[in-house]
Amino acid sequence: MKNKLLILMPLAMMFGITSCSRSYKIDKTDFSLIPYNGKETLVFKSTENKFDTIFLKGFEQYSAGSDPLAFFPDKHEIYRLKSIVSDPNYDRYLNGKSIIELTAGQDETIIWFDILMKESRFYGKYIYSKTEFDSVPISSLNIDSKTYDDVKFLNQMAHMNKGTIIRKDFIGV
Fold first, then answer.
1. How many CB atoms lie within 10 A of CB 23?
2. Which residues in the chain land under pLDDT 50?
């Protein structure tokens, strides 16, 4: 009996310790928040007739720990859209950037936007919860006599006037 206890005690302790971490998954319906297939080319045209391009290079899916110092950190599923974008500081393209990222949170999915490129006005990441993103109204936008009816305007930091537009077949500012 004593031998069985010596074997069961460490097993019970290991089970107790390892079960302390949680694994958060992105809800299957939330994948539709990314309006791209992953292989498109996005062309941006400014009001000054300058062009820029983002080349979408597919999706990457992985899990990451929430606390790098924890022995058994919570794992959050991440789904990101990889791209090649123009460097805002030099005349070159940067590979491996992520323009949209979904992260499984404790309560709901988090959506990250990181649209940083030459001549852009949306600098840095902006984070929405799924509830916040769903509350952004869908609008219409006319560009070169074509009307887009599935546009969401994402406001930037408070001191900027312009917004970024996210839509499926994007041609925009």
1. 10
2. 123-124, 157-173
Cβ atoms of residues 44 and 65 within 8 Å: no
| 57 HSE (CA, 13 A, CB side) | 14
pTM: 0.69
CB 24 within 8 A of CB 76: yes
Beta-strand runs (E) in the chain: 23-24, 41-45, 51-65, 75-86, 93-104, 109-114, 125-129, 138-143, 146-155, 163-166, 171-172
Helix H, strand E, coil C: the string for 65-109 is ECCCCCCCCCEEEEEEEEEEEECCCCCCEEEEEEEEEEEECCCCE
The DSSP output letter for 160 is -
Q: How many Å apart are CA 87 and CA 116, to the nearest integer?
A: 8
Asked if 81 and 36 count as a contact pair (C-beta separation under 8 A), the reply is yes
pLDDT at 78: 92
